[in-house]
Amino acid sequence: MGGFSIWHILIFAVIVLLLFGGNRFSAMMGDVAKGLKSFKQGMADEDDEKRQRYDEQRRSEPPRQIRQDEPIDVTPRREDSAAPPPRDDQAR
What we know:
The chain is mainly alpha-helical and 92 residues long. It is built from 1 helix and no strands.
């Protein structure tokens, strides 16, 4: 009810082929394929540029030093919580 059946799609495809012809239709599909290929290549180039900027930034920053006497806090936190997690020596 209100949707396209397989017969509707087949009739539409036949009409499109009659209007545009086989050669022109395949040429249009080739142009669409070239456009998609160009789009994917542009996206890959953009990703490469982002990766290159990230690598340059990582190389320019010195590694962060951690004091040996300070324990490392590996407690998972929620981003929206304002209170710091309790320390081991505090009552929970």
